[in-house]
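RECORD TYPE: protein structure
NAME: CRISPR-associated protein, GSU0054 family
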Amino acid sequence: MLAFRVHYLTGRVYAMDPTDRNRVEWPPHPERFFSALVAAAYQAAIPGAREALEWLERQRPPQIAAPPLAGERIIHGYVPVNDVEVPKKVRPEAFEEALGVLPTLRPKRPRPFPSGAIAGDATVYFVWPEVEPPAPIRARLHAIAANVTYLGSSMSLVAVDVVEEAPAPNYVPAPEGDVVMRVPFPGRLAELDHLFGLGERPRPGRWMRYRRLDGRGRPVEPARPVFGDFFPFRLKGRWPLAAALVLTDTVRTAVMSLADDPVPAILHGHHGGLHCAYVPLPFVGADHATGAVLGFAVLLPSGISWPERAAVYRALGRLRSLALPGGRVLEVEPVNNFQVGRTPYALTPWRWCRPARVWASVTPVVFDRFPRRRERAAEVLAESCRFVGLPAPRRVVVSPFSPLRGVPRSGDFQVNRRPGQPVRYVSHVVLEFDQDVEGPVLLGAGRYFGLGWFAPVPEAEEAAHA
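PREDICTED:
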């Protein structure tokens, strides 16, 4: 067996997820660890290091034993950009020289710096259980590991060594796994050398699926709600979150008007059963969140037939504008989910659908029935969760206020589509589950119109700093 032990000396990890700049990469990807070994070997000039690293990159991806994060925190800082355009009125050579010497002259852009507190002893193991390296290779790997000082950013201080024993893994390579990680591969060291010689940053490498295991070695599957596909649209304009119901009602009417005749039930739901939901996509939960609605999404139920899905695709493909009450017209455009760098985080599915144990309402929940007492609200919400395919929550917090910054109080929201509708119990809600729950999460009587719309909160720490 070959096993590396990585101990985070401060109990925190500072490493950006390559698929989501606002999240922490956890557990650390094997490719990140391999690159850290390469950097340490070159800086320490360890004899025979190249042979040991080439041997390691030829092995199958490792199993991982990692504790969970106790919470995540995101700090946004403004940093000078490296790629700038030289103004025409400035002598190029003088401008470029000044920029190279004085970063304060460069324009600055916001950059997220995510970090996470690691539960337990803050130790991660990378394990190859069926591999036994030759003695010279093991000795060189041990020397390389001893020179690794950080994993992630330079603030992620670590101590690394080769050990003879390791705990049971909770992440193992599996084609059907739901966690995707970057892994090294044969030729990765040569590729890193080539890119370094060109002065270019390393490329992500190869991706592999991992399966999560519980303490007994059984697969851990997140609970999934009834909604599956997530189709976001960008608004060319702004809309207040408190009036989200007006927007989603208009979206539904517009999509139905563009659908084939007769309008399929999957779009309107008049005949009962599951149908599409229409939700707002606001800028909330960040340090400078305004609560402005940047777009909306159409959610499709899981397991619908191909003819129903095709009917929705045709209608959405024709949607270009919304005629809102009062004569206002807003242009809309579909969002390309793969252009992460050009898309506001609020318009990406990762903002709303990633697995988490804690979820907070962005729009208030319209309760399915009126609770007799405030303490009974948890029972009503547990029934609502089971109705949409979610487990009963372990803890429920009912309040007029959401912990997410930028969200108005529940009493400020419009919650009735038509005048004279019956009064219902309305409140913001925080749900905490015993297991990961995968979004999108919608609860309550107004869920098909974007009320009871939740955002994931990885842990209570993030909610406190949202």
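COMMENT: The chain has eleven helices and 22 strands.
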